[in-house]
Amino acid sequence: MAFTERHAASGWLFRGVPDAVNHKLIPKIGRCPRRYSALREQVIFANFQRRAQQFVLTSAMTVWDTLALAQHHGLPTRLLDWTTNPLIACFFAVTGEPRDSDAKVFAIRPSETINIVDQNDPFSVPDVGVILPGAVASRIVSQRGVFTVHPDPTSPWTPAWVKNAEHSFEVALDCRLFFRRRLFSFGVDPAHIKGDLDGVCETLAWQLSQGISVGSRNY
To answer: Structure pTM?
Structure first.
């Protein structure tokens, strides 16, 4: 709670990671540097733009929103996921893979966001910056999601906040289940974070496996 109180002011962003030691702030597209190329990245995104039209009216979206949608659905991009809610970040930290390590929550406070009207090309942004996505997916909204964009997606991002121990919080391996249970009691679970039937069923399955709230009353 002390960590959340220190970061209660507006403007803080949080990211939860399941491996406190080995995780680096590198977007998924750049985590294998020898296989990365800017051309390949843009080609795969162009393919997403073309094929996503089968499911979503991407022609009505900005390029930024389409990139955020791609990131949200698992396409490797130059974006990193963050949230304005530290409890949601903690949930992703304690439930992610690997599950045999200490977890960690980072906090950063960027001074400004990218103006996506003036800077309308995600592939020409010169410096790491924050973008606020449109409501292109309900889960982004329910997770209070925001993104950082990384012009060199193969390079670990190490801003001053990340280097300062006061702006991170570690969850020991043997405390991860305790934190998951506490988050559940606060209403932070897949049913809330995903906001759909997949989330409801994931929460109920977890409750069943843990024997939590599966008596005569079940919520």
So the answer is: 0.90
